Amino acid sequence: MSVLVRGLAIPLVAGAACVLGFAPFYWWPVPIAAFAVLFHVFDRSGSPRQAALSGFAFGLGYFLAGVSWIYVSLHEFGGMPMILAAIATFLVCAYCAIFPAATGWGAVRWGGQRTGPRLMLMSAGYVGLEWFRGWFLSGFPWLTLGTSQVPSSPLAGFAPLIGPYGTSLTVTLAAALACAFFQNTALAAARYRILAAIAVLFVAGGVAKGVAWTEPSGPPVTIALLQGNVPQSLKWRDEVRVKTLLDYRDMVYAAQARIVVLPETAFPAFFDELPPEYLASLRDDARRTGKDILLGAVERDARKGRDFDYYNSVLNLTDPAQKSYRKRHLVPFGEYIPPGFKWILQWLHIPLSDFAIPTEEPKVVTAAGRRFGVAICYEDIFGEEVIVVLPDAEILLNVSNDAWFGRSLAADQHLQASQMRALETGRWMVRSTNTGVTAAIDERGQVLRQLPQFTKGTLVESVTPRSGTTPYVRWGNYAALLLVAAILAAAWRAVRR
Question: Are residues 244 and 183 in the same domain?
Fold first, then answer.
């Protein structure tokens, strides 16, 4: 087999196949097999440079197949010219591909000549760099490997223990063991030990999956999740504004629930510019029917002079005295322009691309006596940020507008990230979105009900508030990083011996 096919084509295809492990496919064994192929290619590489090229090809396949929806947001809704949007999307994917490339380079450069230490470096090295990708330059932890195991894989049982990166580590360990099994054909005893190690890994995950880490903290509460299905290309047009306001008012009136949730930036106007009589009508209905209304809105605070600070917020419309939750982790180029990139605005036309970051610490939002941990859109792919309000929060809430990504994989992948947040915290997660996926997810990461995408509708679900603390809520990512460091140290010692 030529070096080109073995070193580039096979990793490229294996990387693209990894996306099948994520929503909407949920084929969780595929990423394990794909990484086993990648590790085999790394181990057979003749040099660190060759391993790096193989890792880069794998990463390109992984991210071009998985996050090509970036092109949709930049070109179709951001107005960026087609060529520039394609180049920008490729550059983002190429940046993400650097991390598996660095994994291969480091494993071959420092892993010695034996397969065992090399596989240990590959497994732990990839996860360490994945964590770095989720943190560096504000972070982009999309398609975190561990998320592919939620909710059906036995390995998903590790999520409440060691979080998303710890679950990623179990995937790479399973892949490394599978790679070792097929390469150690000479020693039958070694193969039996490898099979036993794989069995222990999956059995341990299955046992952990059966543990109830949290418990109900009160009776169920009915929550209505609204999905307005307002096309992104029309949302901010004046002729659509009145219809949007009236449609949402009718949906609030019709909702038979104790709590009603409207999605991210539901109304195409600043909150302080909404007609007072319109807000009064919503509050009157809430008082009459006993509802609490949680609303995704754009707030603004006056600065010195005529300028304003804008905030992407969730507020309790029926309790004006309660402080709103304001989004803390903004999307680069979508909600803020990084320093030095103002020039990109001549091609990128996204409304409200200059949000401010609040200075106050995040707090729960209360509705119907229940405490909600809120994440707005992109924030719920950061597990370490969601757990900041735990164990105080009893229910997790995500409001989103994934209309920016059209009919791509983005909304389903985002849903699976919410499933991971529910599983690792032992809390229900409810999602209200503009075009989908609006859903109710229980504490085990299972989607109990969801609305079809790109339809207007209301999902009503009886949600159980929960209390208690999972190990991940207590330790955050530290446990996973300690495991990564321990495996790297053991590999280094083995190489030196």
Answer: no
Instruction: Please confirm, yes or no, whether 360 is among the known catalytic residues.
Output: no
* Catalytic residue of the set 93, 327, 335, 424: 327
From residue 170, alpha-carbon distances to 123, 157, 200, 483, 497 in Å are: 9, 10, 11, 10, 26
Those residues with Cβ within 8 angstroms of residue 420's Cβ, 6 or more apart along the chain or in another chain: 144, 146, 147, 150, 159, 164, 383, 445
Nearest to 120 by CA among 50, 187, 39, 61: 39
Q: Are residues 274 and 395 in the same domain?
A: yes
Is position 264 annotated as part of the catalytic site? yes
Tokens (6 digits) for 414 = 């985002």
Per-residue tokens: 242? 């009145």
Same domain, 274 and 397: yes
Buried b (16+ CB within 10 A) or exposed e, 256-293: ebbbbbbbbbbbbbebeeeeeebbeebbebbeeeebbb
Regarding whether 161 and 272 lie in a shared domain, the answer is no
Give mean pLDDT, residues 398-411: 92
Per DSSP, the three-state class of 24 is coil
pLDDT tens-digit profile of 139-150? Answer: 999 999 999 999
Asked if 298 contacts 325 with a C-beta cutoff of 8 angstroms, the reply is: no
- Indicate whether 188 and 280 sit together in one domain: no
- In terms of residues, how long is the chain? 497
Catalytically annotated residue among 179, 209, 377, 461: 377
pLDDT given for residue 436 in this prediction: 86
Report the alpha-carbon distance of residue 316 to residue 328 in Å, rounded: 18
H or E element at residue 39: helix 29-43
Task: Tell me what the mean pLDDT of segment 62-74 comes to.
Answer: 94
pTM value surpassing 0.90? yes
- Find the catalytic residue in 93, 130, 235, 264: 264
Structure tokens at 339: 């320093």
- At which residue do the structure tokens 């969601």 appear? 386
Alpha helices in 238-386 (DSSP H): 238-254, 276-289, 383-386
Active site residue 377: yes
Mean pLDDT calculated for residue range 90-96: 97
Model confidence at 217, pLDDT cuts 50, 70, 90, reads very high
Indicate which CATH number applies to the domain containing 404.
Answer: 3.60.110.10
Whole-number Å distance between alpha carbons of 439 and 399: 11
Residue 389: which domain range? 216-469
Tell me: do 117 and 224 sit in the same domain. no
Whether 462 and 429 have beta carbons less than 8 Å apart is answered as no
